[in-house]
Write a structure and sequence with these properties.
The protein is α+β, with helices and mostly antiparallel strands. It has 6 helices and 8 strands, in the order ββαααβββαβαββα. Bound molecules: coenzyme A. Residues 11-177 form the N-acetyltransferase domain.
């Protein structure tokens, strides 16, 4: 198993490192960022522990979420993070998620990072299917994944108790065969 490294035109996707701490904490402490995510806001010490827990993880272990750094190359700075989990029972199926700091949103960074991830997963790692689950109220994320061409294949009604209330989610997916056609 190897550490993951992906380069796109503007971005370098790699393991989180201690040097990312302040940038990571600046958006992971923002309640607007965690509003639709399985993360609570983090204080500096929680952010530090989280980075330490991710920094040596190797791509390829089924059933394990790994959170990766998204670095903007000209700034040399962390602007967000993305996550991949290979399915516990079949590692040809992957699940992904992404977060871009509120300072850098709506500049095409999420889309560029997602396209880089998908190219890596489908073309290099021969993944068969990528899925993403999104809160039905998360309009930015829905716009992002639909603009990439993910197919909506599920609408789960009040399937998750989250932030003191029942929430509903859409599931989206894309197959390698669908990616090839794009
Ligand atoms: C969802 C998120 C990752 C989008 O990041 P981003 O870098 O701003 O997205 P991009 O600039 O790459 O935009 C991608 C597409 O989504 C659209 N979009 C992005 N944010 C939008 C918003 N707030 N409202 C409407 N459309 C939006 C863009 O217009 C673009 O569409 P296009 O390709 O048709 O032009 C970001 O809003 C975020 O981190 N949110 C908080 C974390 C989260 O909820 N993550 C998803 C759960 S896993």
């Amino acid at each position: 198993m190897d550490p993951l490294e992906i380069h796109t035109a503007r971005l370098h996707i790699r393991n989180l490192q201690p040097k990312d701490l302040n940038d990571f904490h600046s958006y992971r402490s923002n309640p607007e960022i965690s509003k639709y995510q399985g993360f609570d806001v983090m204080d500096l010490s929680q952010a530090e522990k989280f980075i330490a827990s991710q920094q040596n993880k190797m791509f390829g272990k089924p059933g394990q979420w790994i959170q990766y750094a998204i670095e903007e190359k000209t700034l040399g700075k962390l602007i967000g993070d993305c996550a991949i989990k290979l399915d516990e029972s079949d590692k040809r199926i992957a699940e992904i998620g992404i977060t871009i700091s509120h300072h850098y949103q709506q500049q095409g960074f999420a889309k560029e990072a997602m396209l880089g991830l998908m190219d890596f997963l489908f073309a290099v790692k021969k993944i068969h299917r990528i899925k993403e689950t999104v809160d039905v109220e998360n309009s930015a994320s829905i716009k992002l994944i639909e603009s990439i061409g993910f197919r909506k294949e599920g609408h789960f009604i009040e399937n998750i108790f989250f932030n003191e209330k029942w929430g509903s989610e859409f599931q989206y997916a894309m197959l390698k065969s669908e990616w090839r056609k794009k």
